[in-house]
Amino acid sequence: MTNDKGSATSSLQFTETMKGYAGAGQKDFQSGYEAGKGVASSIAFTLTISIDDVERFIDSPLHQADAAGHLNCGLLGGRVPVERGRFNLFVDSVGDRLRKKMLYRLFVRNRQNEPLTIAGHKDIFDDPGPDLWSDTTTLYVSILRGHVEPADDSKADVVAAGIMHLGALDFMKQMATFRCFAATRSKRWAALERFGRFFLGNLWGVYGRPDFSLTNTRYEREIALFTTEGVPDAQCTHHAITTADKLGLGMLRFTRAACDDVVLLIHGLTSSSDMFIMPEHYNLVSYLLDHGFTDIWTLDGRMSNRLPYNLLRHRYTMDDVALFDYPPALERIREAVGSSVRIHVICHCLGAVSFTMSLFGKAVTGVSSVVANSAALTPRVPGWSRVKLTIAPFVTEYILGMTYLDPLFSERPGLTLGKIMGKVTSCFHRECDVPACHMLSLMWGAGSPALYNHKNLADITHRRGGDLYGPTSVHYYRHVLKMVKADNTAVKYDPLNTEHSALPDNYMAYAHEIETPVLFMTGQENHVFSDSNILCHARLEQRVPGRHQLRVIPGYGHQDVFMGTHVDRDIFPHILEFLTANARPVRDSKEQAEFSSPVCYQSDFPDY
């Protein structure tokens, strides 16, 4: 039996592109790079690395493969083919088992037909700080006169030296070029998995990341998935709703008694109702039930990880969420409780962005008050997040061919591109040993960690982050980016889409007409939407002074505002105070004035 290459063995190949600069007459790599860059003397190659026998490649101490392709270098007269090339992966350094080398040796000829050798190496060594990416993507190159073997390098005439790099986009393209050839599909997957274990196992051996195994380990769940055990002392019922664009959504209702003031809780993208009913701490639903709000509803919209929609390559935007998800949810509540009952909304993250879009876009009416956490009508993100919003959708969908990003990539069975992404991501995050936390920092915000402060979470909450935040496709990123570019303003994604004609192109357009008071809340250390809500409150304060409120919570970030161990002490009283003030008639003008102070905490953010 033979494979596609005509052999009974399993073979593998991938393509790598690297670019940099080399200086003529230089022997030192850094000096050559700087000299070459100064005169635009570039050097680049695209190589196809071919491993004819994966088993033999891994078992051999040289780990050697063939390299074919072309080199483009002004010092050689332009583009020249590689006559013969070798690539060695993770070769042991003499006398240092913790240092590895990736070696490149390419035999070429310049335009004058003179033989030359490109000798390059990557130095794989764990220096202080996060250096895995720079080590594995930096190639130090020398151009030697003649076709020179390694034993003769010290005697060779050095024509030039420099440094080449593998860019992030080229790395993503490289990951998509892996091809395995064997007699059967199972043998192909087995060979690819063994190569993956070899590659990532060597990185683990050098950089010391814990739990870097690629075996099919089972994710051990400590708290049941989608449990309602966090609210044991209330009647829990499920209510199905259908959107106008024909999606089925769900609502949970927790009741102890009839109440004139009903509260609806709305999650953000990739989270769900679970963020409000967590059993490991005094959660928001239980807190509100205990403090007089005895009829609480949670909505699982199309962005919820309890539903399958985030696993699809969709083209939903927050316009869809604003127009289609919230109106039937509020209608279902009113059917159950009556039209005279006041409805208050607490919303978070992109749930807060989309709900305030729905409210200020007049898709929903009759809401008595809103608490919007982290972001609303003025999304603003850190600089690194803006870069990720720009490249992530294209790279994820069209280069990697992936449908979604998943915090639990590292724990999923089998060797997949997602698992490799999860493991590699963990190599850049030394702040903790929870792979899901590392992926969440890649998916959202900027920081280590990005979503929360570790100190605010219970250990079990930290460990089960992959359940609390599920997978998501990336099209919502495009809408966020458009808002960021639109002077940090919530705008319609596609003004020409007739389905959304009932919504305004700019969701600030009716701001002066919306009488529903909003409490804009944010953690002072928010690394996802930074000071978005401070900006939103400032802009609305200019239009309708005194109508809306602001709370900036010291010591908290983006998600720990609802998931932290001590949120019942640090966060929920702010929410309760606001709800209570809007749930009963204000007794006198003095009480109104006391609560209407627009800023209740002086932050370190700049003025607007």
Report on the architecture of this protein.
There is one protein chain. This protein has 608 residues and is an alpha+beta fold. Helix content is 31%, strand content 24%. It is built from 19 helices and 18 strands. The protein is elongated. Strands 1-2-3-5-6-7-8-9 form an 8-stranded antiparallel β-barrel. An 8-stranded mixed β-sheet has the order 11-12-14-13-15-16-17-18, with helices on both faces.
Offer a concise description of the structure.
This protein is an alpha+beta fold. The chain contains 19 helices and 18 strands. A hairpin with a 5-residue loop joins β6 and β7.
List its salient traits:
19 helices, alpha+beta, 8-stranded mixed beta sheet, disordered C terminus
Task: List the topology elements.
Layout: E1 11-24, H1 29-38, E2 42-51, H2 54-59, E3 64-73, E4 78-81, E5 84-93, E6 96-109, E7 115-124, H3 132-137, E8 138-145, E9 158-165, H4 168-175, E10 179-181, H5 185-207, E11 235-242, E12 248-255, E13 261-266, H6 284-290, E14 295-300, H7 318-337, E15 342-348, H8 349-360, E16 367-373, H9 383-399, H10 417-426, H11 435-443, H12 459-463, H13 465-468, H14 475-485, E17 518-523, H15 532-543, E18 549-553, H16 560-563, H17 567-570, H18 572-583, H19 589-595
Parallel strand pairs: 13-14, 13-15, 15-16, 16-17, 17-18
Antiparallel strand pairs: 1-2, 1-9, 1-10, 2-3, 3-4, 3-5, 5-6, 6-7, 7-8, 8-9, 11-12, 12-14
Helix pairs in contact: 7-8, 9-14, 10-11
